[in-house]
């Protein structure tokens, strides 16, 4: 049974009473601001001239604080990733402005990431002008014919919660309200709106019936469902929770809900491919990142906000445990296949439901709590042993690098991660504990962390933001564009590249499928890069602090210097040459 919870409306139901005879472009800008949008992450084109003129006119009139700041991004992928990062930190919908079909295409994998991560982003894209002459905004350049396509929204439709084309005389305020409402409500994610230059240039009147924007999401389970879950928990000797997304904003209250539940029930907690910190990683009941430990040892497994709870690989996931799913969208309609065996599903907010159970639960058997604490202790001991072995061998591995980074992480640090095969080392060695201190892209689009780190810094200027990326991810991010974005908007981040000089994920996947094959025997030569590169070089275009590190003894000093630079307002990039994990 689902429950609908509604936040306080974001804007009043009546439109603003200022000048009604304004262009649609100005109404868009003012309406975004009235709905709480503070920034528009924009990659501009010839189709945005009405918006640029409107913004300049508003500023000249001394009303610049009544429209969002326009953050000019050197590439659309960086713009979308920055908006995603900002939304992940704040929980608030962000706006991205791109131009026509080619700009939409450049959103690329960043649109996929926002879709899979549930990041609320409103994309406003221009359309080629529809008139050849006679109107403000008519075609005046050959590019306006090149950019005219039959179905521009079709480029991204599968990744969107809602699509629309603005057409006058409709009030843009309603297009803004409706789009932001759809982006932020469960299941949250991107929306996509198009508009031609002619449409944006039209004068429009406000609509007196414009409704307030809602943000609708599920509440906790109903009384019967809560009672059933209580019964299952009380009967379980070793309950466990598998989660990926429960720590999303508002992070503090949602992480606290899981902590209270785990401590009340004695449950072990697995973070399975987490998009954010879901449970303090130094907690005695954090049993790691492999769901097999829960499936093997638990007698009750609760799937709380997770899209892919495990890999369904035959005997590897055989379990006698009862599996209960708590999720606002339990059938996962955005996934063509979802073959996970679940005994019971509760369509509800997982954090609210677990919190309600924790509030009503009395004392529980200490056996489960003690068991999971032993499992967690063994996991940490294994991680410490791996680190000691690498240190003693004087190796510069992802494990050694991650341990060094742990020393520069404090309570105000935000880690934005996109390191792929170095991820296990990062997760095991960097002991993050604060809600909202860790974010991952949520999808498969490499390069996200470059722009996302800048977006996170803009959202939380007082935080030290550290982006941890693989060499492939760093290159995919358009690093020069990200460096320029960070410098231009005073959003310095520290980027640490786990540089293993190749495509380690490709090698690993190939040898896993063909362990005795010819490619494995040759060490998959296509996965390796022989050319020596300084991956910090792209950041030098903005005079960032850069350094290449290939000696583990250099790490402490290199990290200290980089932190000093970032804390002083200068972006920093360290290219660390690590061994393949």
UniProtKB/TrEMBL annotation:
Composition-biased stretches (Polar residues): 8-21
One Pfam assignment: TPP_enzyme_C
Residue ranges of every copy of the Thiamine pyrophosphate enzyme TPP-binding domain listed in the record: 430-576
Residue stretches making up the Thiamine pyrophosphate enzyme central domain: 227-356
Tree of life domain: Archaea
Ranges where the record places region Disordered: 1-21
Gene3D superfamilies assigned: 3.40.50.970, TPP-binding domain
GO biological process terms held by the UniProt record: isoleucine biosynthetic process; L-valine biosynthetic process; sulfur compound biosynthetic process
A single GO cellular-component term on record: acetolactate synthase complex
Key word Metal-binding present: no
Keywords from the UniProt entry: Thiamine pyrophosphate
Family stated for the protein in its record: Belongs to the TPP enzyme family.
Name used for this protein in its record: Acetolactate synthase-1/2/3 large subunit
């Amino acid at each position: 049974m689902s429950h609908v919870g509604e936040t306080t409306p974001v804007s009043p139901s009546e439109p603003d009473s200022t000048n009604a005879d304004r262009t649609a472009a100005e109404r868009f800008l003012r309406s975004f601001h009235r709905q709480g949008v503070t920034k528009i992450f924009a990659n501009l084109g010839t189709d945005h001239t009405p918006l640029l003129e409107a913004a300049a006119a508003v500023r000249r009139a001394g009303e610049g604080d009544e429209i969002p700041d326009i953050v000019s991004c050197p590439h659309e992928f960086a713009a979308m990733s920055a908006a995603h990062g900002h939304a992940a930190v704040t929980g608030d919908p962000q706006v991205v402005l791109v131009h026509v079909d080619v700009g939409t295409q450049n959103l690329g994998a960043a649109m996929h990431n926002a879709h899979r991560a549930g990041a609320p982003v409103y994309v406003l894209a221009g359309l080629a002008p529809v008139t050849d002459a006679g109107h403000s905004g008519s075609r005046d350049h050959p590019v306006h014919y090149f950019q005219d396509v039959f179905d521009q929204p079709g480029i991204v439709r599968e990744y969107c919660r809602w699509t629309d084309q603005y057409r006058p005389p409709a009030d843009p305020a309603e297009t803004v309200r409706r789009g932001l409402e759809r982006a932020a409500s469960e299941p949250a994610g991107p929306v996509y709106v198009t508009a031609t230059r002619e449409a944006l240039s039209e004068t429009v009147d406000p609509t007196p019936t414009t409704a307030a924007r809602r943000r609708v999401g599920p509440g906790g389970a109903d009384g019967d469902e809560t009672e059933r879950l209580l019964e299952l928990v009380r009967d379980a000797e070793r309950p466990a929770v598998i989660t990926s997304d429960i720590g999303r904003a508002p992070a503090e209250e949602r992480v606290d809900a899981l902590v209270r539940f785990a401590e009340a029930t004695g449950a072990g907690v697995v973070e399975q491919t987490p998009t954010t910190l879901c449970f303090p990683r130094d907690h005695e009941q954090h049993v790691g990142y492999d769901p097999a430990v829960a499936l093997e040892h638990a007698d009750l497994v609760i799937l709380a906000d997770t899209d892919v709870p495990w890999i369904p690989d035959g005997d590897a996931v055989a379990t006698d445990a009862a599996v209960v799913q708590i999720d606002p969208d339990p059938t996962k309609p955005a996934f063509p296949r979802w073959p996970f065996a679940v005994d019971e599903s509760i369509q509800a907010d997982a954090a609210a439901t677990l919190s309600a159970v924790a509030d009503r639960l009395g004392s529980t058997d200490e056996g489960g709590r003690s068991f999971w604490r032993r499992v967690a202790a063994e996991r940490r001991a294994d991680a410490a042993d791996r680190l000691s072995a690498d240190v003693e061998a004087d190796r510069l591995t992802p494990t050694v690098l991650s341990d060094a980074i742990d020393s520069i992480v404090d309570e105000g640090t935000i880690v934005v991660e996109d390191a792929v095969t170095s991820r296990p080392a990062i997760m095991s060695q960097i002991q993050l504990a604060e809600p909202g201190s860790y974010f991952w892209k949520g999808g498969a689009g490499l390069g996200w962390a470059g722009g996302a780190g800048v977006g996170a810094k803009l959202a939380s200027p007082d935080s030290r933001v550290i982006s941890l990326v693989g060499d492939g991810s760093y290159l995919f991010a358009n690093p020069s564009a990200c460096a320029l974005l960070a410098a231009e908007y005073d959003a310095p981040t520290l980027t640490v590249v786990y540089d293993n000089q190749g495509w380690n994920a490709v090698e690993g996947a190939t040898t896993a499928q063909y362990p005795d094959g010819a490619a494995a025997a040759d060490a998959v030569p296509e996965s390796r890069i022989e050319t020596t590169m300084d991956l910090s070089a792209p950041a030098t275009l903005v005079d960032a602090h850069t350094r290449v590190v290939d000696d583990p003894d250099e790490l402490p000093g290199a990290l200290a210097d980089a932190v000093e630079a970032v804390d002083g307002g200068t972006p920093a990039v360290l290219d660390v040459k690590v061994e393949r994990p």
